[in-house]
Amino acid sequence: MKRTGILFLVSGPSGSGKSTLCRRLEGEGEAEFSVSCTTRDPREGEKHGSEYYFLSTDEFDRKVGAGEFLEFAEVHGNKYGTLRSEVIDRLLDGKDVVMDIDVQGAAQVRGCEDPAIQRALVDLFVMPPDERELAARLTGRGTDSEEVIALRLKNAIEEMAHWPEYRYRLLSATREEDYSRFKALLVAERLRVSRLDS
């Protein structure tokens, strides 16, 4: 029996820990990470094709026009998107794909009519325990200015209002507790009979 891969779509505000969870899942060989495209500048240590595909605005817009994106959105003044080629072929090959994606992109993926996406989709919203902890996490990164942190905090609070749109919610605790529950959800979804071809 061959199963369809799972599209593990993970959202949450900046500072929720979602990116760490996704990268650890990939690092342990549990799923393949869907690398997104962005028009923002690389941060220190980030490499093209690893954290993101870094595109110019013109390159990004050309791909939009050619229908190459599964989803795309503008966030914090920059454009982000997921290439169809990063996802659908892997799912059909039975591979699990994890996507770290904002709420705008998640809504577009949910609305995608491709049967491979509809069959594979599992969506999870990662919530920080409270706004104070979220602010501490954003400040603790040490990578952004006060203005950027203030914008991210404002956007994060707005994003958190979208958690009821998701099938699952993970209320963040410690890194190890979060990852244990995160991975358990993926394992449970793999056991679903509806994912197996008879």
Summary of the model, kept short:
The chain is of the alpha/beta class and 198 residues long. Helices cover 40% and strands 21% of the residues.
Summed up, the helix count is: 8
The major pleated sheet works out as: 5 strands, parallel
Number of E-state strands:
9
Average pLDDT level: 88
What is the number of independent domains? 2
List keywords for this structure.
Guanylate Kinase phosphate binding domain, 198 residues, globular, Rossmann fold
Protein architecture, described:
- This protein is of the alpha/beta class and 198 residues long.
- The chain folds into 2 domains: 1-34 and 95-192, Rossmann fold (3-Layer(aba) Sandwich); 35-86, 2-Layer Sandwich (Guanylate Kinase phosphate binding domain).
- It is 40% helix and 21% strand.
- It has 8 helices and 9 strands.
- It has helices at residues 18-27, 57-65, 88-92, 103-110, 115-120, 131-140, 146-160, 175-190, and strands at residues 7-11, 32-33, 36-38, 52-54, 69-75, 78-83, 97-100, 121-127, 168-171.
- A 5-stranded parallel beta sheet has the order 2-7-1-8-9, with helices on both faces. Strands 4-3-6-5 form a 4-stranded mixed beta sheet.
- A hairpin with a 2-residue loop joins strand 5 and strand 6.
- The longest helix has 16 residues, at 175-190.
- It is globular and about 55 Å long.
- The model has no long low-confidence stretch (mean pLDDT 88).
